[in-house]
Design goal:
Blueprint: E1 3-7, E2 13-17, E3 20-25, E4 28-33, E5 37-43, E6 46-51, E7 61-65, E8 69-73
Antiparallel strand pairs: 1-2, 1-8, 2-3, 3-4, 5-6, 6-7
Length: 87
């Protein structure tokens, strides 16, 4: 199955595949099971993944800023120079 990848600035990326969200940031890659995702919000060039939490004050959110490309991609997450294929 092909993954959906969102690329952001600062070499960040979100990859949706295999029942999880894979977030690549400068501090490494994080695997977030879909069951732990409360909501995903996109506004402009910012994509935010909020995790579920019993207490809304303890919510964790991961942001990808400068999101300008989205499309199918082979694993692993491509470099920031990757662009989706032309239609």
């Amino acid at each position: 199955m092909t993954a959906l990848v969102l690329l952001g600035s600062d070499d960040t990326a979100l990859r949706f595949e295999e029942g999880a969200v894979h977030l690549r940031r400068a501090d490494g890659e994080h695997r977030i099971p879909l069951a732990a995702v409360g909501r995903v919000r996109a506004e402009g060039q910012v994509v935010e993944v909020r995790l579920t939490a019993a207490d809304e004050d303890d919510e964790t959110a991961y942001r990808v800023e400068g999101a300008s490309s989205a499309g199918p991609s082979p694993s692993p997450v491509p470099s920031p120079s990757w662009a989706p294929p032309s239609p």
